[in-house]
Amino acid sequence: MVLEALVKFSNFYGSNEELVLAGGGNTSAKDGDVMYIKGSGTRLADITAEGFVKMSREKIAEIFTKTYPDNDKEREALSLADLMAAKLPGQESKRPSVETTLHSLFPQTYVLHLHPALVNGITCAADGKAWAQRLFGNEVLWIDACKPGYTLAKICYDTLNEYKAASGADADMLLLENHGIFIADNDVDALGEKLFSVMAKIREQAPCDPDFSVGEFDGDKAQLVFNEIADTFGEDSVITYEPSAQSLELASSAESFNKIRKPFNPDQVVYCKPYPIYINSIEEIAPVVEEYKNANGFLPKIIFVKDCGIYAVDFTPKGSETAAALFNDAMKIEFYARAFGGAKPMSDELTDFIVNWEAESYRSKQ
Question: Any idea of the CA torsion for 112, 269, 66, 109, to the nearest 10 degrees?
Answer without folding.
Answer: 0
